[in-house]
C-alpha cells in the first residue's frame, strides 16, 4: 500500500488546532499508510498533542510532522488583502507543500475566497478550465449520491464555466461513484426551457448538443436530495445558499429528535429513542458531518475545503475526501478526460 501525505491547515476555521489536531490523530489511526504535515503554531499544536500522547502509539506520532506557520488568514479578510499578506500563513504554507510535491493534498477550513485565490496562484488550474469549482458528493434518497458544483468558489458564472463544471462533475460521477453515463442537470427556477438566467439557458443549449454528456435538463431546488440526477450544476452563489439551507434544515430536524429524548415524560423519551433509531437507519446518511469536505475541482493538485465550523468528526470526513482523491488520482483523471469531453467551440 503506497504512502499518502496530506498537509493540514491546522490554524484556520472556527476552532483551529482544537479540532485539527485530534482529527489528524484519528485519521492517522484509521490509515496506517497516512502521513500528515500539520501546519500551524508549534506551541499550540504540541500542547494539544501532549494531552493525547499517552493514548497514542509512537507509530502514529512518527507519521505526524509539525510545520511552523506565523500567521492565520481570517475568515473575513478581503481576498486582495489575504493574498497580499499570505506569506507565512498556515493556509499558504499547506498549499505550498502541495505545489512542491511534499504533500499530495491540502485540507483547510479557512477563508474560501483566499483558498481559491491562493490555490489558483500556487497550484494552477488544469488546461481548459477557466476557474476551479467547489464540489461535494451529497447523499440522496434510496442511498444514492449526487455530485453538486459549484458550492461557493465562483459567485458568478458564465455559460462556459457552467459547461466546464458539468463536464468535471460528469467525470467525477463516473470515476468516483462508478456511474456509467451519469445524468447531468442544471439547477434552475423551473423545468421549462425558457426559465432562468441567460447563462443557464446558454449552458443548457451547449449541453443539450454535447454527445458526451448525458444532459437531462433543469432541476429545481426541492429535488436536490431526490436522486433524480447524478450531477447537479449551478453557480457558486446559488450552490452555497442551497447547500447551507439543506444542512440547516437537517440539523434542525436532528436537534428536534435529540430534544425529544431529553423530555421528562417517560413515554416521550421512549418515543424519541425509537424515532432516533428509525431516522438513523433510514436517514443517517444525510447527516452533514458525514459528508463535510468540498473538493476544489479543476486544479492540478488536490485541495479540500472543510466547513469553518466543522467538529472533529466532520474534519476527519474532509481528510477522508483528500485520501480518496489521492487514491483515485482525480486531478490526472480529469486532465486526461477534459480535452476529449469539452466542446471544441468552448476551447477555440
From TrEMBL:
Pathway: Lipid metabolism; phospholipid metabolism. SUPFAM superfamilies: Isocitrate/Isopropylmalate dehydrogenase-like (SSF53659). One of its GO terms (cellular component) is cytoplasm. One of its GO terms (biological process) is phospholipid biosynthetic process. GO terms for molecular function: phosphate:acyl-[acyl carrier protein] acyltransferase activity. Keywords: Acyltransferase, Cytoplasm, Lipid biosynthesis, Lipid metabolism, Phospholipid biosynthesis, Phospholipid metabolism, Transferase. It is an enzyme of class 2 (transferase). The keyword Cell cycle does not apply. It is found in: Cytoplasm. Its main location: cytoplasm. It catalyses: a fatty acyl-[ACP] + phosphate = an acyl phosphate + holo-[ACP]. The keyword Flavoprotein does not apply. Its EC number is 2.3.1.274. Homodimer. Probably interacts with PlsY. Belongs to the PlsX family. Catalyzes the reversible formation of acyl-phosphate (acyl-PO(4)) from acyl-[acyl-carrier-protein] (acyl-ACP). This enzyme utilizes acyl-ACP as fatty acyl donor, but not acyl-CoA. HAMAP family: PlsX. This is Phosphate acyltransferase. It comes from Zophobihabitans entericus. The lineage of its organism: Bacteria, Pseudomonadati, Pseudomonadota, Gammaproteobacteria, Orbales.
Amino acid at each position: 500500500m503506497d504512502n499518502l501525505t496530506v498537509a493540514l491547515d491546522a490554524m484556520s476555521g472556527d476552532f483551529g488546532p482544537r479540532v485539527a489536531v485530534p482529527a489528524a490523530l484519528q485519521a492517522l489511526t484509521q490509515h496506517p499508510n497516512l502521513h500528515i504535515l500539520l501546519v500551524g503554531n508549534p506551541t499550540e499544536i504540541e500542547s494539544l498533542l501532549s494531552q493525547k500522547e499517552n493514548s497514542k502509539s509512537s507509530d502514529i506520532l512518527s507519521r505526524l510532522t509539525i510545520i511552523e506557520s506565523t500567521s492565520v488568514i481570517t475568515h473575513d479578510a478581503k481576498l486582495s488583502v489575504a493574498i497580499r499578506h499570505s506569506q507565512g500563513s498556515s493556509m499558504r504554507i499547506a498549499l505550498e507543500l502541495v505545489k512542491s510535491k511534499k504533500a499530495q493534498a491540502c485540507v483547510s477550513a479557512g477563508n474560501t475566497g483566499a483558498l481559491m485565490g491562493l490555490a489558483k496562484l500556487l497550484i494552477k488550474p488544469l488546461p481548459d478550465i477557466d476557474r476551479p469549482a467547489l464540489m461535494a458528493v451529497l447523499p440522496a434518497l434510496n442511498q444514492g449520491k449526487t455530485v453538486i458544483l459549484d458550492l461557493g468558489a465562483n459567485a458568478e458564472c458564465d455559460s462556459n464555466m457552467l459547461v466546464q463544471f458539468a463536464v468535471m462533475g460528469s467525470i467525477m460521477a463516473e470515476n468516483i461513484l462508478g456511474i456509467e453515463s451519469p445524468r447531468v442537470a442544471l439547477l434552475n427556477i423551473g423545468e421549462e426551457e425558457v426559465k432562468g438566467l441567460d447563462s443557464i439557458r446558454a449552458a443548457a443549449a451547449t449541453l443539450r448538443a454535447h454527445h458526451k454528456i448525458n444532459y437531462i435538463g433543469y432541476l429545481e431546488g426541492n429535488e436536490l436530495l431526490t436522486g433524480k440526477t447524478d450531477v447537479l450544476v449551478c453557480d457558486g452563489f446559488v450552490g452555497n445558499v442551497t447547500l447551507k439551507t439543506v444542512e440547516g434544515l437537517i440539523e434542525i430536524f436532528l436537534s428536534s429528535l435529540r430534544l425529544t429524548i431529553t423530555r421528562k415524560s417517560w413515554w416521550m423519551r421512549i418515543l424519541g429513542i425509537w424515532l432516533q433509531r428509525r431516522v438513523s437507519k433510514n436517514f443517517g446518511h444525510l447527516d452533514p458531518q458525514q459528508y463535510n469536505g468540498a473538493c476544489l475541482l479543476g486544479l492540478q493538485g488536490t485541495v479540500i475545503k472543510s466547513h469553518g465550523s466543522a467538529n472533529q468528526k466532520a474534519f476527519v470526513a474532509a481528510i477522508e475526501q483528500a485520501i480518496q482523491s489521492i487514491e483515485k488520482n482525480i486531478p490526472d483523471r480529469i486532465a486526461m478526460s477534459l480535452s476529449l469531453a469539452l466542446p471544441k467551440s468552448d476551447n477555440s
